[in-house]
């Protein structure tokens, strides 16, 4: 799997935090520190992005990942 350097924006506003954003950040950090992704991903925590009904919210590769899970985010990373 070849992935060029990507940014992942994780909302850590209050609603997203209540919906597991903190845990999601930990999972993504662990997943992106493993071999095929190591050094390719930068995780950026953001303030509320005003889409709280979709919490936890992540933006990756220009996609809004609503009710995000680490699995959903990693799948989006594989998209060309
Ligand atoms: S708290 Fe995450 S979008 Fe509002």
Report what the structure shows:
The protein is α+β, with helices and mostly antiparallel strands and 80 residues long. 32% of the residues lie in helices and 22% in strands. It has three helices and four strands, in the order βααβββα. It has helices at residues 14-18, 21-32, 70-78; strands spanning 6-11, 41-46, 58-60, 63-65. A hairpin with a 2-residue loop joins strand 3 (58-60) and strand 4 (63-65). The mean pLDDT is 91. FE2/S2 (inorganic) cluster (FES) is lined by residues 11, 13-16, 48-52, 55, 57.
Largest sheet: 4 strands, mixed
According to CATH, the homologous superfamily is: Glutaredoxin
Number of domains: 1
Runs in which pLDDT lies below 50 for 5 or more consecutive residues are: none
Overall mean pLDDT score?
Answer: 91
Task: Please state the CA-atom Rg, rounded to the nearest Å.
Answer: 12 Å
| Structure annotation, total helices | 3
- Portion in strands: 15-25%
User: How widely separated are the two ends?
Assistant: 11 Å
Number of E-state strands = 4
Order of helices and strands: EHHEEEH
Overall structural class, as computed from helix and strand content, comes to: alpha+beta
